[in-house]
Amino acid sequence: MPTAIHVKRLNSSDPGFTEILLSSLSLPMADDEAIDAAVVQILAQVQAHGDAAVLDYTKQFDRLSVASVTELEISQQALQQAYEGLAADQKTALDVAAQRVRAYHEQQKIETGCHSWEYTEPDGTRLGQKVTALDRVGIYVPGGKAAYPSSVLMNAIPAKVAGVSEVIMVVPTPDGTRNPLVLAAAWLAGVDRVFTIGGAQAVGALAYGTKTIPAVDKIVGPGNAYVAAAKRRVFGTVGIDMIAGPSEILVLCDGSSNPDWIAMDLFSQAEHDELAQSILLCPDASFIERVQASINQLLPEMPRKKVIETSLTNRALLIEVKDMAEACDIANQIAAEHLEICTTDPRQWAEQIRHAGAIFIGNYTSESLGDYCAGPNHVLPTARTARFSSPLGVYDFIKRSSMIEVSEAGAQTLGAVASTLAHGEGLQAHARAAEMRLK
Amino acid sequence: MPTAIHVKRLNSSDPGFTEILLSSLSLPMADDEAIDAAVVQILAQVQAHGDAAVLDYTKQFDRLSVASVTELEISQQALQQAYEGLAADQKTALDVAAQRVRAYHEQQKIETGCHSWEYTEPDGTRLGQKVTALDRVGIYVPGGKAAYPSSVLMNAIPAKVAGVSEVIMVVPTPDGTRNPLVLAAAWLAGVDRVFTIGGAQAVGALAYGTKTIPAVDKIVGPGNAYVAAAKRRVFGTVGIDMIAGPSEILVLCDGSSNPDWIAMDLFSQAEHDELAQSILLCPDASFIERVQASINQLLPEMPRKKVIETSLTNRALLIEVKDMAEACDIANQIAAEHLEICTTDPRQWAEQIRHAGAIFIGNYTSESLGDYCAGPNHVLPTARTARFSSPLGVYDFIKRSSMIEVSEAGAQTLGAVASTLAHGEGLQAHARAAEMRLK
Fold first, then answer.
1. pLDDT tens-digit readout, A104-148
2. Is the residue at A424 inside a domain?
3. Exposure of B5 by Cβ count < 10 A (0-12 exposed, 13-18 middle, 19+ buried)?
4. Are residues B230 and B122 part of one domain?
5. Element at B341 (helix H, strand E)
6. How far apart are CA B164 and CA B168, in angstroms?
7. Are residues B290 and B224 in the same domain?
8. Which of A246, A301, B42, B268 gives A429 a disulfide partner, CB atoms 3.0 to 4.6 angstroms apart?
9. What keyword terms does UniProt attach to this protein (chains A, B) (predicted)?
10. Do A89 and A185 have their domain in common?
11. Do residues B98 and B204 share a domain?
12. Looking at the structure, do residues B122 and B165 belong to the same domain, yes or no?
């Protein structure tokens, strides 16, 4: 007989509800001093010794012994072969996913202003911004059990759509085991070069460059605690994406959904990781009971039931709320990575949401569709950072330069203003530089 | 008789030129362990004790002793009085600067896609992104000698243009000394609340919130080493802007400019800070000589000549290049914060520039006009980070949420794809969640 698990229940009218909720969301910071110290050492070795250090660490950590880093590069031909060798259904699924992710990000490039612009003032002064793509981007792809081809698509395609000239992927292949789906995804996404290296040594190689591996301008993609620590350390030398926390889903229900669907959506976060968090907000207590029943009924059939059980027991919440309006208020406080709105007329509630990484609207929009093939990016802000940050997008692979061309006439009016303000700040060379341009 | 200073000279044809150049750009990382340890302590105290800790540190560091944090708030009326009390020319200059910065950033809001968007596919599936402004932003403004009203405008105006509901400014006032220009700028920029606190304690108060000071979602603005260390530490709890390094200017000349203007533009970076860096690239050796002569002639008249002399002696470079095309190539390697193009037909060279924080085009566009009143932001990427980052802008005060609404028909086609890919990644709950929506 399967073990029944009991998910923690809260009611928004409980005394101290907000404090309990917020403390349930937070995890202790994973500032592991030992990992950080090891990473500092690895980065220093890679910076000092380049290829030789990369070879040493790859031998040590991935048990992969080769004579030169060039042997760790996978050719475009090998990537294509991996793709050609896929089963027909996998090939089609990857094709559809890549095509849809590309189409969405092409629209995003248009809509989010990834273009240069300029305007001219009456005196001839021209002001604007120039947009350029990053020259070279590194994508970290985890190896081993958490090797996700979908992540290759989600990280590489926006970079290529943005116009990045060279996308360099690193993926560890412990004991030389390569994942054909990951290589096929790299080929489909248009990744330019692939090296089978990983860990902090791969981050260091991308940040500083070696004889064989070119230095990049930004490093994106998920990784373990060593990779995360290395990304934090090289930030400034290169750009990085957000350091992601455990995955989260928040489901808003009015009680009109199929409880099995809701239970499975909660599972689909929980199965990622013991620390993943699944939360349901619902004004209908009897529906919450039905979801709890579905959880117990469906759990035994899940291959990853151990992970799901630990995650749901330790971190999930089923919260009874006053009404859907209150559910939206609480959702804005949580600022979840994934937010599902499973109600009748879900748009009215979507309009109330200000803070979420992605909003999945209506009962047919399972979060897993967004993970793979709806089109929007699955790299999303976690740990309440949706209050101030955005999904990974084309905008992360471009940058802007201000363009300022002051006319001779403009230099007269602006020069007087700048001179006054510069003197007010005690910066007389600034003032003189403006004054020298006055007639 | 004034001391002649000799600025370091390089030629792009020197052996090892690129290595010499790149090593001249870098500064040792200012990772001061003692500062970081002090900051960790201050942040922990503020998080644990709120207002009481803020009062203690303000008494200790700013010699300002009050009974409650409410006494450290400056009223809107006091801000307005500071503005009304300015000399007429200062008031006008600040008005013009605020109006121009606002106009530029309003155009930026339109051009850089700070709007929600959505498209509908043939099967009724709707995809897009929702844009929302951040709820609450904190602006750090340094006190004392480096109190810059222009920085108040440059940080607060883009936030207000973006639609941030509440902008909270902190500015230390050591011994209670308030800078009327800074307060006037806060009033003009529409800052909602001002607290006279500073240092790591102010960063902590904004990040965690206290009884009196509300927690914000992002903290921007320059500060000393303690403020920078505190911002690094609270990143993740709140968003932060870039940690700025010393200011830099790179001037590209073809030899057709007034050498005095060029010398003064080099001074205007050098006067900020002994570590600031000024570089000239020019194919005309005789023009470089004339700039060197202007430097020696103009330096004695500069009130901040000590700072300028140290900066130019230790960090400036006058580089002779083969031609302007090579100058542009080198400029792209340097990726300077400020890039001036002082040539005939400067637009042709501006087109060659891919990496720079701001590009100042033509002899009349002194960098100091951009610092104060041209309109574009003066908060710019330093230390070669213009390779991957942008000027502070309206886009830093908004964030995006993906919007995904899959139709019943869409769930059939996408569900099959997601199921295949999820099984390929070993995530069966993801697959089941998609499969359950299949008819």
1. 999 999 999 999 999 999 999 999 999 999 999 999 999 876 679
2. yes
3. middle
4. yes
5. strand B338-342
6. 10
7. no
8. B268
9. Amino-acid biosynthesis, Histidine biosynthesis, Metal-binding, NAD, Oxidoreductase, Zinc
10. yes
11. yes
12. yes
Domain identity same for A73 and A183:
yes
Please tell me what DSSP assigns to residue B363.
Answer: T
Which structural domain, as residue segments, surrounds residue B416?
A: 406-436
Task: Mark whether B147 and B216 lie in a shared domain.
Answer: yes
Catalytic residue list contains B338: yes
Complex ipTM tops 0.90: yes
CB atoms within 10 A of CB A23: 9
CB nearest to B427's CB, from A130, A217, A271: A271
| C-alpha torsion sign, points A161, A163, A168, A170 | negative
Q: List CB contacts (< 8 A) between B383 and chain A.
A: 236
Residue B350 CA to residue B361 CA, distance in Å, equals: 7
CB within 8 Å: A360 and B404: yes
Contact B309, B5 (CB under 8 A): yes
In the residue annotation, B337 being an active-site residue is answered as yes
Flag whether A423 is marked binding. no
Number of folded domains that form chain A: 3
Q: Chains A, B: CB contacts under 8 A, how many?
A: 398
pLDDT tens for A338-374 read 999 999 999 999 999 999 999 999 999 999 999 999 9
Q: Quick one: which of B296, B290, B281 has its CA closest to B334? A: B281
- Per-residue burial over B21-35, b = 16 or more CB atoms within 10 Å of its CB, e = otherwise: beebbeeeeeeeeeb
Using CA atoms, how far apart are residues B425 and A148, in angstroms rounded to an integer?
6
For the beta carbon of residue B288, count every other beta carbon within 10 angstroms. 23
**Pick from B350, B374, B398: which residue ends a domain?**
B374
